[in-house]
Amino acid sequence: MKKITALLLALVMMLGCAAAFAEDPIELDVIICEYGNNTRDWFLGSGMNGSNFVDLFTAANPDVKLNLQVVSWSDVHKEVSTRISNGNPPDILNIDTFSEFQADGLLLPVTDYCPEDLYQDFFPAFMEESVVDGTVWAVPDLASARALYYNKKIFDEVGIEVPATWAELKDVCQAIKDFYAGDVYGIGLDLTEDEGQVTFAYFAWGNNGGFVDADGNWALNSDANVEAVECIMDLINSGYANPSPSTQTRYELQDLFGAGKLAMVFAPNQLPQYLAEKGFDIEFATADIPHNEGATGSSVGVMDRVMAFRDDAAPDQAKRNEAIGKFLKFFYDPANYVGWVSMETFLPAVNSAVGALVEADPSFEAWLNVLGNCRFYPAAKSEWADVRNGIVVDVEQRALTGEEVRPLLDALQTKIAGN
Amino acid sequence: MNQILVRHKWEPYLWLLPSLLLMGIFVVYPIGIVFKLSFSEISRSGMVGGFNGLSNYITAVTAPEFGSVMLNTLIWVVSVVGISTLLGFIVALVLNAEFRGRKIARSIVVFPWAATLVVQASMWKYIINIEYGALNNTLLNTGILSRAVNWRPSYIIDFAWECGIGIFVTVPFVTFCVLAGLQSIDLSYYEAATVDGAGFWKKLRHLTLPLVRPSLTVSTVLNIIYVFNSFPIIYTITRGAPAHKTDTLVTYLYMLAFSEQRKGPATALSVVGFVILCICAGAYMIITMRKEDAE
């Protein structure tokens, strides 16, 4: 009896293998970042009109099998680098940075796999952000733009106007501090390793400074940047900001803003949805990010990317590239992509989605205009990750402990650019 | 007879084999990998390159924050292990005395030990939060305070809170180790000492302390290892911010590896930590064992 069972089992296994060989679908390991509560449901659950991305994709492309994984933002870098260390990188990756992978020769140029019509559909300004040595190495999957949100009730009670410049910002914060005797903070500042670099960008770009100069070379210790960091420290030391900027992340600040304990916060265009989902009920409005007197303000954009890794062991490179192209084509198909972008209220990266998005929600248009003027991190430079950490830990957080700003920025510039 | 002896020769190893295998796969092998990685070049993306000598170690040790991180580690281990051993010993003495409700008191002491560290650290973070923390709310509602107090005004205070929480969660372990030792002491020793006219302090010094020393040795050695390696409290409350001023070696190397993506120096530091722990624990055990032998 046992023998018969064993024989039967062996037969079933052989048949199974034979069936697998007969179809021979291309397998793609895909890692997607978890943008919000709906991401997993959309890709793997029932968030796409009762079905999900993987099922619908497989139905439309039976020759491609997706092993799709949704990973939280706090784990994704760890997950990817562990896989790379073990010689098993994903085929398709959705993440924020790309230059560290490009520098190690792990990525495929976008033109190798991206269909021409889709390539032309991406906003050209976005594509430029992923160029190294004249080659595009990643495509944008979505973007968000930052603005200053303020609590209307607090502004009415105190009787103040929305600040446009740093000087006005300080005056407004002083008025709020006087009025509420410290119970309400003026402005929320995140100097944690999560987003300390964005806070730097708000102030540096708002003072005609920034990470790089006009030629694209690192210019971290410019006078404008020194002033910007000093302005951030001044806001904190004057008691205008949240009390622990080095441990309070933007999400904590958004919660304080929702609870009416924070008058102003810098946040992405998803803030209204965030507050609604958390059950906060406050009246708020948006304004431009304040800039220094005499400088031009600019919006801050954050963009994420999709990239494809090389797999030199793949038997048929052309077929693999084609499969990756099919994935992109399906993802950016307006029928799917519009739902994806609007689900987490992000801003699109392709032209073909704009019409449908504006039609569904006219307020999108204003954000699209903001996006047009946005500046992005210099993520294509290979030192970017070091700059990002350096700005937060070695400049902002050290300044917070009382160190002088200029030597800190000088030291970082020397470390990064050697001058 | 001979056969039985032969069988007994290999039998113990057979029974040990499963745990030896597990330890080999999950403890020894990963340690070996870390040693190897610490001498390899690791790129930011995670690619492991070739042998690069001591350069990971040099980068790690010459980083400007290395000194303060090591000092923090020393303060963290000495204060948490030292103070919790002292407090745990006192609590154990109290719980060893006869009183009504002793069973309840003993179970209450276990509570901080039973909850996971992440949960406890998150709870404390909530308790001392200035805006909606339980501590401020309680003091404001009972009228003891009229204004909310910022319980975390600087990173030095933050680190002190972290040490305090470390002590709070470590005391139960010491208490129960010492209590087990106390309960094994024959009461007749104390009766004899009382007859000889010894007071409380004399009995404590010449009877209790020598007799619970083995338990104290175990709890201290284990605590040095646990506390040195403890990660959740600091990671949950400050993540080492600002500028690694509240990091200990373990949280620092985690941030290096996974936040700053500098795995080379991080693996070098984990080897350094491993060696330090081996030396500390080994030295402590040798010293105490020698003393015990001498006595």
Q: How would you describe this protein?
A:
The complex is a heterodimer of chains A (419) and B (295). Chain A has 419 residues and is an alpha/beta fold. In chain A, 48% of the residues lie in helices and 16% in strands. Chain A contains 19 helices and 11 strands. In chain A, helix 10 crosses helix 11. About 1% of the residues of chain A have low confidence. Chain B is mainly α and 295 residues long. Chain B has one domain: MetI-like (MetI-like fold). In chain B, 76% of the residues lie in helices and 2% in strands. Chain B is built from 12 helices and 2 strands. In chain B, strands 1-2 form a two-stranded antiparallel ribbon. In chain B, a hairpin with a 5-residue loop joins strand 1 and strand 2. In chain B, helix 3 packs parallel to helix 7 and helix 9 packs antiparallel against helix 12. At the A-B interface, helix 4, helix 5 and helix 18 of A face helix 11 of B.
